Amino acid sequence: MLVVFVAVLLMVSSVGAYYYYQDQQQAQANKTYTSELNAALNSYRALSESYNSSLQDYNRTLNLLAAAVANLNTSTSAYKNASSALASLWTAYQVLARESGRSAPSYELNMLVDYGNGTRVWYNDTRAQPGWNGYLVTLVLLNGDVQATWYPQYGEHYVTGIGGVSDTQSKFWFLLTYNQTASWQVAQVGADQIHVFNGTTFAWVYCAENAAYGPACPLP
């Protein structure tokens, strides 16, 4: 009887030791998983902070570039560099914002470029940063391919070329605005004075000039 009791006791002790060992292994595994999870969370927080910092840096740089092209003389190298970089930086900023799960504040607008030879290019549902004007939008959508003369006394750019097509003695670039009441009409102000908002629509049309100094071609 004593032998049987000892045998049972040894068996129970062995089973208990086995499960105790398994429990310790599981506890250690849980600690490892917890540690890895905490490390992953810390990495996520660091990455999130990095995205936030990057977005802020992008936004500051965008504002500086926009201010440069809005106020510098168009013949300066600084203006040329800023205007060519503005479009690519704006695109990169929007991509970074989407990847970080945040939306970059922007307005949705439409712009038409009519080259006067049957080629008409619509930039529909494009995005612009709040505070931009029609000139900056044109510059961004054309990737900096805009010729203009800056008149600081008026705070205006006189646009003389778009997309490689320049003014001549008989043809010029005209700026048009659109609203649902009056449809298309010749802009009463320059592109710098057109403040864009959601739904803003405007156009550049290349054609001859009529006696009233307006476009001689039919409006879109």
Considering the chains and any ligands shown, give keywords for the structure.
220 residues; alpha+beta; five-stranded mixed β-sheet; three-stranded antiparallel β-sheet; 3 helices; globular; disordered N terminus
Can you describe what's shown?
The protein starts with a helix and ends in a 12-residue tail after the last strand. The chain has helices at residues 2-71, 77-99, 134-141; strands at 107-114, 120-128, 146-151, 156-162, 165-166, 171-179, 183-186, 201-208. A hairpin with a 4-residue loop joins β3 and β4. With 220 residues, the protein is an alpha+beta fold. α1 runs antiparallel to α2 (77-99). Mean pLDDT is 79; it is low at 2-10. The protein contains three helices and eight strands. It has a five-stranded mixed β-sheet with strand order 2-1-8-6-7, covered by helices on one side. Strands 3-4-5 form a three-stranded antiparallel β-sheet, with helices on one face. It is globular.
- Please state the average pLDDT score: 79
Most strands sheet? 5 strands, mixed
Which class do the helix and strand fractions yield? alpha+beta
Compute the separation of the termini in Å: 108 Å
Helix content: 40-55%
Give me the count of strands: 8
The backbone outline, from C-alpha atoms, is: globular
Give the helix tally.
Answer: 3
Strand content: 15-25%
Low-pLDDT sequence parts: 2-10
Query: What's the alpha carbon Rg, rounded to whole Å?
Result: 32 Å
* N to C succession of SSEs: HHEEHEEEEEE
With strands numbered from the N-terminus, the spatial order across the biggest sheet is 2-1-8-6-7
